[in-house]
Predict the 3D structure of the following.
Amino acid sequence: MAKKQPAVAKLELERVYNVPLRKEYRKVPRWKKTKKATKALREFLQKHMKSDNVKLSTEVNEKLWQHGIKNPPHHIKVNVTKDKEGVVRAELFGVKKKVPKEAPKQKSKLAAKLDDVKKNLSK
């Protein structure tokens, strides 16, 4: 009977946060509000996930900048994961992750010529 090897878990921690932003971005002039909201989100995630390496997804960034620099959302709900290397990734809550499709492998020129020769020989 083969020994079972433990499954290697890439994720160390996964949580959902509703991050309050209004309290922080009210401290700055209106033309800096969304920049401050982005910094506040990063600082919140650094504090709660205990890691300095925080990556925001494009969906989160677009949600923050949706109404421009002067009018960010009051709070944002994010799904946060932390892996073994300490990288924290924030995804917008409710948005499915896009899985890139693998492109079909193309044959090399030599392999394509070989297939043509085999077809011609079989005729």
